[in-house]
Amino acid sequence: MKKTPPKLTVKEAAVGYLSRRDHAEKELRQKLKNRGYSSEDVEEAIAYCQDYNWLDDARYAGMMLRSGIAKGWGSLRIRQEMKLKGVHDTIVRQVLEGCEHDWYEQARDVARRKFGDAPADTPKEKARRFRFMQYRGYDFDQIQYALGSDDEY
User: Fold this and answer.
1) What is the pLDDT of residues 52-95, one digit of tens each?
2) Whole-structure pTM value
3) For the chain, does the N or the C end have fewer beta carbons within 10 angstroms?
4) Which residue ranges does the record assign to the RecX third three-helical domain (predicted)?
């Protein structure tokens, strides 16, 4: 069964996607290919969008960083989400290094909102809290700071 040719031109489809929200270059390329456009047409549309600055991975990475911080994610989780969306490692590194956010204080705020001020009284509870913070993307030092513990996990 052959796909029917798309009704929109590839440039119209690309601009349509970008008008709804920012996309990473890789993400937009994949969406256009999935719609049945040829690789040559997709590359031409990507270049067209970049020429007009409608498609910019650095801007997209900055948006993902702000969004991740708002969701209470740590830098490790944000980095992973950017990689999943296809943002190049160099851009990810530049955006995260340029960020002057206090990850330790954010980790403490996230832990306080989730667990309150009650101390973890059992090893099982400590492990549960530690796993939650790891899932959120905080590193070991940030988690220890957030949970206010010098204990070994």
Assistant:
1) 999 999 999 999 999 999 999 999 999 999 999 999 999 999 99
2) 0.84
3) N
4) 102-147
